């Protein structure tokens, strides 16, 4: 009788041990600081690695790691670890368009108790920007209020001047030209819009449409800069006279649709730099998922037509959509559909993804 009780007790103890067994994840290191990187290192993909170990007493199953941005790729050596086993997590970061102190995250998910572990990679990137740029590249124009526009010159070009600013109809420059732009420094312009562009109506303001403007300098090596004026709260402003356009607008469908604006590769790079502090810029890669996985623009997300949800799009009404496709015509065609969703404006990379490489 006593022997039977001992056997039952031993079986219960063994069963409890089995039920209580669980994996435990150990990561070395959990935070990685690469310090200040050289200019050469910042122009290449940056590697990093973590060692993941199962220090528990049952099988660990790891899911595909997630990252905080499209600029970071993470790949596990193994997805199943027996107790005592380890594997390496390889990380590759594309720092294009980023500078100053940066932090990148990798999220490891699995059947360990906390289910998610956040790994951190920190670094200090040098400023590799060249030429000149608008700060910001998109201005929000409210009613007829003056709007400041900053221009920064990264090149050591003495005697640089802003010589021309081309604005949409109804907008005017309040600053005098030519305006000196110090080498490695910054200058500020002011402009305002007192009328809506010709042919626009209330639907234009309601959809926060954007129109391009350009800046030129006296330096032939500096390309012209392109920016956008985003019109908001202009419902009470008069519209520039254009009877022919107004007639065309009257005859169009009552459904407002945003028209895409073509941008160059250099302009897209400016926007990617600005994106570091702007959450409403969405770079959508419309190519097939396989093509996206083989190479894509940093911080872009895969959004092929099979994933579209026009009734409930994954962006806010204030989003600026940047469309990337095999060529610009496919992106423009896609914009005809995506433009029916709530968004601030739609930009298309001229030449498509091949123009980026």
Question: CATH class of the largest domain, please?
Answer: Mainly Beta
Number of helices: 7
CATH topology of the largest domain: Immunoglobulin-like
Radius of gyration: 27 Å
Number of separate domains: 3
Distance between the termini: 80 Å
CATH superfamily of the largest domain: Immunoglobulins
Largest sheet: 5 strands, mixed
Binned strand content: 35-45%
The geometry reads as elongated
Uncertain parts:
201-207, 241-256
Q: Average pLDDT across residues?
A: 80
Largest sheet strand order = 12-19-18-14-16
CATH architecture descriptor of the largest domain: Sandwich
* Total count of strands: 24
* SS-derived structural category: alpha/beta
Helix content: 10-25%
Any descriptors?
alpha/beta; Immunoglobulin-like; Oxidized Rhodanese, domain 1; 3 domains; 7 helices; elongated
Give a quick summary of the entry.
The chain has 357 residues and is an alpha/beta fold. The protein has helices at residues 2-20, 39-42, 202-206, 243-251, 265-274, 289-294, 328-338; strands spanning 25-28, 31-36, 46-54, 60-61, 66-67, 72-76, 80-81, 86-93, 100-109, 116-125, 132-135, 138-142, 147-153, 161-166, 171-173, 179-180, 186-193, 210-217, 225-232, 261-263, 281-285, 300-302, 320-324, 345-349. It has 3 domains: 22-125, Sandwich (Immunoglobulin-like), CATH 2.60.40; 129-255, Immunoglobulin-like; 257-357, Rhodanese-like domain (Oxidized Rhodanese, domain 1, 3-Layer(aba) Sandwich), CATH 3.40.250.
């Amino acid at each position: 009788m006593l022997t039977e009780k001992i056997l039952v007790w031993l079986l219960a103890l063994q069963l409890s041990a089995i039920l209580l067994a669980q994996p435990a994840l150990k990561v070395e290191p959990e935070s990685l600081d690469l310090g200040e990187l050289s200019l050469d290192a910042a122009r290449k993909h940056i590697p990093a690695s973590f060692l993941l170990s199962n220090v528990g007493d049952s099988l660990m199953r790891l899911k595909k790691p997630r990252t905080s941005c499209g600029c970071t790729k993470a790949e596990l050596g193994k997805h199943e670890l027996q107790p005592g086993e380890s594997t390496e997590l390889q990380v590759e970061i594309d720092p294009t368009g980023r500078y100053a102190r940066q932090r990148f995250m990798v999220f490891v998910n699995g059947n360990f108790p906390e289910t998610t572990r956040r790994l951190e990679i920190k670094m200090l990137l040098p400023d590799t920007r060249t030429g000149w740029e608008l700060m910001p590249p998109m201005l929000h124009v409210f009613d007829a209020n003056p709007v400041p526009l900053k221009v920064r010159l990264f090149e050591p070009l003495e005697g640089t001047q802003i010589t021309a600013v081309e604005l949409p109809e109804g907008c005017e420059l309040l600053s005098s030209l030519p305006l000196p732009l110090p080498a490695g420094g910054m200058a500020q312009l002011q402009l305002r819009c007192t009328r809506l562009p010709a042919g626009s109506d209330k639907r234009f303001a309601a959809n926060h449409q954007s129109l391009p403007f350009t800046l030129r300098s006296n330096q032939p090596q500096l390309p012209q800069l392109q920016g956008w004026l985003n019109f908001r709260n202009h419902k009470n402003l008069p519209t520039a006279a254009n009877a022919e356009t107004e007639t065309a607008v009257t005859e169009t469908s009552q459904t407002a649709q945003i028209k895409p604006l073509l941008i160059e590769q250099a302009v897209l790079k400016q926007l990617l730099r600005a994106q570091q502090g702007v959450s409403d810029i969405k770079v959508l890669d419309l190519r097939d998922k396989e093509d996206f996985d083989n190479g894509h623009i940093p911080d872009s997300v895969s959004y092929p037509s099979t994933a579209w949800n026009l009734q409930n799009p994954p962006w806010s009404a204030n989003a600026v959509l940047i469309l990337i496709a095999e060529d610009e015509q496919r992106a423009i065609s896609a914009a005809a559909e995506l433009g029916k969703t709530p968004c601030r404006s739609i930009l298309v990379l001229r030449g498509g993804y091949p123009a980026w490489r």
